[in-house]
Amino acid sequence: MKKPKLRELGEAIKAVVRGPATIKFPAEPYEAPPAFRGKPQYFEDDCIGCKACAEVCPSQCIAVDDDVGAAPPVRRLTIHTDACIFCGQCELNCTTEKGVKLTTEYNLACFDRSACRETVEKELVLCEVCGAVIGCRDHLLWVAERLGAKRYANPTLILLADGELGLVSGEARRDPDRPLDRSDTMRVLCSACRRTTVLRETWGV
Predict the structure, then answer these.
(1) Does any domain span residue 102?
(2) Tell me, what DSSP letter sits at residue 147?
(3) Residue 39 resides in a domain
(4) HSE on the CB side for 121, CA within 13 Å?
(5) Are 120 and 152 in the same domain?
(6) What pLDDT shows up at residue 122?
(7) Using CA atoms, how far apart are residues 177 and 53, in angstroms rounded to an integer?
(8) Residues 6+ apart with CB under 8 A from 48
(9) Which one-letter DSSP state was computed for residue 171?
């Protein structure tokens, strides 16, 4: 019985010499390691509003709201950190790999759940004919940049990517009662309106 007690005494002496094994939290702040999976955070300059994070979120804590009535229309992505399980799927599947990151912030306790939000807004691009959502402007510009010269096969990408050159003074107004025809080819169109335009031009449908 003496040997176990001697071992306990030895451990006690070592603890006195080494000091406490735990930190003095919450009296002193805890610094999480770099690989710690804490609060997710959007980075507006790198996020393109593609919704990939919301699609892969297993806890469905990322809400997507397309406000087409705003001026300009915007897509609002909101992470509800009170429902987040910090799995890191949003960061892993981010299209740009930099739009959303898990930080080392862990102290997320609050009294108001409305404060548990991480939001980013991106400008939407709408179809000039039917008003359907095509995507976020940053997303389409990102795709155009990745495609390089191949983007000139898509009129929508041409108009968006080269619109900053200022070659056109303003938007050409379109009669909303006029059916789609060849003159609508060089417009920002959704896939459905683009299909109708091509079919009428090619087959007269």
Answers:
(1) yes
(2) H
(3) yes
(4) 8
(5) no
(6) 97
(7) 39
(8) 95, 96, 99, 122, 136, 138, 139, 142
(9) P
| Interatomic CA distance for residues 87 and 174, integer angstroms | 48
Examine the domain organization and report whether 105 and 63 are in the same domain: yes
**Structural domain span for residue 159:** 127-205
Q: Where are the alpha helices (DSSP H) in 73-190?
A: 89-92, 137-147, 155-161
Backbone φ and ψ for 42, nearest 5 degrees, come out as -85, 145
Helices (H) and strands (E) in the chain, counts: 6, 6
CA distance 44 to 46: 5
Which residue, 124, 125, 132, is CA-closest to 65? Answer: 124
Residue-by-residue pLDDT tens, the chain, 205 positions: 556 677 888 888 888 888 777 888 788 888 889 899 999 999 999 999 999 999 999 999 999 999 999 999 999 999 999 999 999 999 999 999 999 999 999 988 889 888 899 999 999 999 999 999 999 999 999 999 999 999 989 999 998 888 766 655 555 677 777 888 888 888 899 999 999 998 887 776 6
